[in-house]
Amino acid sequence: MARADACLIVAGIAGGLALTLLLGVRLISPARFAQALGGGLVGLAVAKAALVLSGADHG
User: Fold this and answer.
1) Other CB atoms closer than 10 Å to residue 19's CB: what's the count?
2) Average pLDDT of span 18-28
3) Which one, of 36, 40, 31, lies nearest residue 9 by Cα?
4) Helix (H, G, I), strand (E, B) or coil at 2
5) Is the pLDDT of residue 58 over 90?
6) CB 53 within 8 A of CB 6
7) Distance set, CA 8 to CA 19, 25, 55 (Å)
């Protein structure tokens, strides 16, 4: 489970940095940034819940 948690953390950080870069160079609007960030956080929560429900250890 530690490896899965690490993958989720890395995916979250990479996604957040990519969105911040897009916002910084004005390729997306602040509203789209917030929408994408919220969607990404929900996606990570769903992935974590699926891992826990499948019987993976969690801390």
Assistant:
1) 19
2) 91
3) 40
4) helix
5) no
6) no
7) 16, 26, 17
What distance in Å separates the CA atoms of residue 4 and residue 10, rounded to the nearest whole number?
10
Distances, alpha carbon 1 to alpha carbons 12, 23, 24, 37, 44, in Å:
16, 33, 34, 24, 14
DSSP category for residue 25: T
| Residue showing tokens 């993976």 | 56
pLDDT per position as a tens digit, 25-42 = 999 999 999 999 999 999
d(CA 49, CA 46): 5
